[in-house]
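hiii so my PI (J.) wants the whole complex modelled not just the main chain, which honestly fair. so below is everything: two entries, each one labled with what it is. i double checked the lines twice but i was tired so who knows lol
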Amino acid sequence: MIEDASNNGRHPWRILTVGTGGQGVLTAAHLLSRFFVARGHEVVSGQLHGMAQRGGSVQSSVMVDCGISPVIPEGKADFVLALEPIECARALRFVSSRTNVFMNTAMVTPFVVAQDQVRNRDMGPPSVQELEQAIASVTSRLRVTDATALAEQAGSIRTLNLVMLGSLFGADLLPYRPADFTDTVALAEENRRAFMSGVTWSSVLS
Amino acid sequence: MTLNPTLLSPTPEEPLLALGNEAFARGAIEAGVQLATGYPGTPSTEIMETLIEAAPVLGFSAFWSVNEKVAFDVATGASFSGARALVVTKHVGLNVAADSLMQLNLVDIAGGLVIISVDDPGGISSNNEQDNRLYAKMAEIPALEPSTLEEARELTRRAFEISESLKVPVLIRSVTRLAHMTSALTLGTIEAPHKKPHFDSSRQWSPFPPLAPHGRLQKKLRQAAGMLDAFGVDTWESNGTERLGIAAAGFAYNYAREAVDRLAVNNRVALLKVSSVNPLPRALIRKFLEPLDRVLVVEDVAAYLEEGLLLEAAAMGKLVEVRGRRSGALPSTGETLPDDVVDALDALVEGTPPRLPGEAAKPASIPNRQISFCSGCSHRTTYYALAQAFDNLGINDPIVVGDIGCYTLGFFPPFNILQTMTSMGASMGTAAALAELNPHRKVIAVIGDSTMYHAGMPGLLQISHQRLPVTVLVMDNSVTGSTGQQPHPGSWQNSDARTLVPIEDLGKAYGLPYVRVVGSFQLKKLPGILEEALSSDGPAMVVSRQACALEPSEIGRRAIVATIDEALCDGCLACIDEFGCPAFVPAADGLGKIEVEALQCTGCAACKFICPPEAISFVRRDSPPT
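here's the output for the full assembly
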């Protein structure tokens, strides 16, 4: 294979947002797209709509100054915002040692797994620790917290996606400060609180 | 979806962030479309949704048709009136309209008529993957395939120009990735509707007799080649020294471009982008092929361009190795993906034999998310009642024929009740023969409301006419549910200015001797009615009716929430094994009992009678449901 000439984890950025139907993955990707466009970047964002509203997995890419394809090649995500840990592990093929992963530890147990679990307590979903280890074995740039709890403290679990966006801007990995985001994208008070709690979480870790 | 008002701007402004499907809608608006119609179908739906919202503001006509053939015929009438008309469909919808397409192509139309077909490579939201470029070839009509939002907008405009100037329908092929991607879109200027519609009665509008029109059609296609060439929609990048090439059609061009950049082989690989699907740009293809030894062709679904290149090379007497989906250098099924293109281009450049990519590695023990009916969905209670009716009548070998819609999830646990599913409306005819050939078994055909209107009605008529003992169970949730709650002729929410045509009226008009309507949540009543229908001799229709749980008027409507009395719950799991509402989850204490996840519960109260120890009751909720 000829040397891959694509980016080495620096600008341009490929951002993958993952979660389950109804968690706000597509909205997070849309807010990010709006922010980067407003800051003069070229943005392409992609998603596959399935029957996500009925409990499925959702993945959305935001490609900043990467050309015209909306699809992240394997191992080429620069940032993963995972609103749910099982979906984080499912996205592992996009992750390399250079990928920064922000993972919410609060699990949305798949419906069928939950039912199996009632019948047989040995048949649960994978533990968050297992999932965390699987991701940590690929990249050490992993930040985890119970972001759902942070969203609840901010006022509603519906602000989970804003907590995750805050974590991206709080980690000081982009040439933008958290205030750049809140100055560019108008947020309701509850959403702003959630965003800032994500900022606080990841800036403490960084 | 909500209309972005910038999409209606009469003149170019700052580029806006738009969805691929919105770019197609804008292209039609810029072309001065006067009538747009279609039938909902992922991944095409947002094109019509955008146009339906834009229509009253800009003063054109846009509406859902009952099916794609009706949509195509409606557009035909508009074109015969001199108006510019658009038909929007997902790939399989064009099968429904194909009869009309294969005859209108022979007629000299008046107003430009454009068909946008959104194909679904990999069948992400479909029963199949099919390549509708082949329809353009069969119908011998011009066809275009955009690769970006800019091209989606621009080629839609161009398609109207070609169609109107050559008096022939023009096909645009899109794919799921383009339909649902977001990027900056630069706008063009909106053309005023150029003509007041007028039907010219001085001529006849028919292909008959067909031979002369067929010759004219072929001439039009040759003229289209010249127009497409003049538009410059196809591009060839070369420094004149390459021996290798990559040719790409439509959206897959983005992956070809990216692969060339990622492997840094810009100086060694010539790049051909083909947006003219039919006719292919033969002269440009010849220039591209002339100096080359090996070529990789990147495209979605069929090896359409690959075969076009092989044919052109043969006609030139040129020996060149052509790799692609046909040769095995790229997977011949499923969506073409960027990593596969990089591998195939790498093998092409290295001169190594093409290798088929393996399955993508996936970490072990990641559970899949089985999709299920939403909480508050009426299909769940209807299947639950049907299973009860079978039990009560001692029917242990029913034949349950399914159709296309959310209720197709009846194939999955906990119901596992459906046994067949093919195309829209197919349940009716399929059930007719199953009833005739399996006289000792009960045959039930399950069909949704929108699917019945779409293509079920002729089959229903046949069941009635032949007096076949089929129980037609209509899952009526008042909208086209699985594509996002679009209205249809039975949608009582949208009936103010339109005539409401309820399904049961069709059943009665078609002469079915047994027709009953019952609320889907009435689990005390519904099984008994199904038992009556199943016990009758002739054809019977039961309409199980309850609005879709995702209908805006339904969301958050009920102020109660289910709750489980821990003392009464004995962990029998009937609520999960037989009913399967996602609001029932294992209790946090891990003792094998069930509790209700309040945010999931819609308060539909349909579960009132399903709990053997009667542990389910209802309380006023303090937080609204999602």
